[in-house]
């Protein structure tokens, strides 16, 4: 089972899982987002999900980190079974910035809808269930991180799904939220998490201003919006 916790300075989420769990999630995310430009209006969001896949792949290679966690195997169980075994398992880890993780959690609803319309899977399809479990883990991590009153405010925006919410979404807005989040103190980051959910579901005027700027720039340069790059730089280094 995937495990998630907020990082020490509340910059993001630390995901931990064994090799099989990470590989299953990696394959499921690839499956639901489709191939390049298969869903043209979702290509920018697709690239953000593939960014998570990139980190998962490197985590499985041991390039990100690892942690030993209890597995429930105790000395008493070992005596009963007459077998010696480890009481901890090694889990591979990787991190996601909080705004990025919340956006991924939300936009995956659209990709699941697209996948189900294309594949007509059965109700217990493993791909969908794996992605839903990933979304649930992010939401549960958010609930454990913020005060109950703030989570209740955020939960109001976990509305019954409305297909197409992230159609042609300008993901540079996620970059803007990521950078602003990094510039905050740890305390303010926690206080702002519920507001991030609101900003990524009930889009504010600042989002639409950026969205129209990006579309106009893409039209002027005769290119796809994903060919454009955000003009603000991420900090070169930070402590998770």
List the helices and strands and how they pair.
Blueprint: E1 3-6, E2 12-17, H1 19-33, H2 43-60, E3 66-70, H3 75-81, E4 88-97, H4 98-119, H5 126-145, H6 148-155, H7 172-182, H8 186-199, H9 205-221
Antiparallel strand pairs: 1-2, 2-4, 3-4
Helix pairs in contact: 1-2, 1-5, 2-4, 4-5, 4-7, 6-8
Describe the protein's architecture and organization.
The chain has 240 residues and is of the alpha+beta class. It has one domain (3-227). 55% of the residues lie in helices and 10% in strands. The protein is built from nine helices and four strands; from the N terminus they run ββααβαβαααααα. It has helices spanning 19-33, 43-60, 75-81, 98-119, 126-145, 148-155, 172-182, 186-199, 205-221, and strands spanning 3-6, 12-17, 66-70, 88-97. It has a four-stranded antiparallel sheet with strand order 1-2-4-3. A hairpin with a 5-residue loop joins strand 1 and strand 2 (12-17). The chain is globular, with a radius of gyration of 19 Å.
